[in-house]
Amino acid sequence: MGYVTSLFARKMVAAAGAGIDAADVLAGAGLDPDGPWDPKAMIPAGSYYDMLERIARSVDVTDLPVRVGASMRCDDYGALGLAFKAARDLRGSLSRVVRYARLWTDVVGYEMRPDPAGILFVVHRPGERRLGMRLSNEATLVSTISLARQVNPGPVTPLEVRVGHAAPRSIAAHEAWFGCPVRFDAGNDAILLSAGTLAQPNTLGDEGISRYLMAHLDAELSEIEGEARIVARARQAVAQALSEGAPKMADIARGLGLSARSFHRRLSDHGVTFQTLTEETRRDLAENLLRDERYSLAEIAFLTGFAEQSSFTRAFKRWLGATPASYRRERRGR
Question: Residue 287: which domain range?
């Protein structure tokens, strides 16, 4: 399970309005309701999607992604937002998103792909198309155009917007925002822009400032990617140890060649606790094993570190709101 910036979560909660208990929803996603809006503070993508689905049970979320995406500002992204502004033209701005997106999420990748009509700015977010992911994808597409319109005198109007999942009950807000056709069930998530639009000079484009900012961002990216490797190795080590029961942090740290203190610090630098990492690893492993009919529920409980199947069932229901058996039946019927 990857991570996203907590900024997105806070924006979604703020836009949902009085129909939800904002403090309770943020706390449920592991965020301090009174904490700072820090884009570098990360939360698990699964927790983010869970939070969006919880909001959807209380309020109409049809146009929530449009309102949230439209509210995003370049300044929300720190040095990356400044680099987006300082690019010479929109092509340069979007190229920086492709290059540096890892600074605010490790679950989404971006691509600029040639198309007969221009260039497709493609959003890649692998995983199950659950409601939380669908809402997040829509907000990402909207925010891309919101940021582009802030830095460029425009007009910035796509030729077409493509969304990989089925349409909500109304797409009026989406089409009004983009000013172009929005095609759902399109097979991918992308914005089609003309070459002329991409070549439009930005208001504050400055090559000297760009070089300075990009050097700073390259340094940040190198640091984050180094920490991400630690997290990935830790997840692998936890997964391998689970059949012996819930692993201890000191044991995992020792296996990675680190002291417990150093391991704790490096996880904290990435916005992760050992408890959260272990819980998410168990959950992801359980979901994957339940898709494989060769494993019984008792075997899956053992492989995910539970001494008893009943304990596994309670934990799984807490994670996903369904028992392992019902989860497996639902996936079997798809």
Answer: 227-332
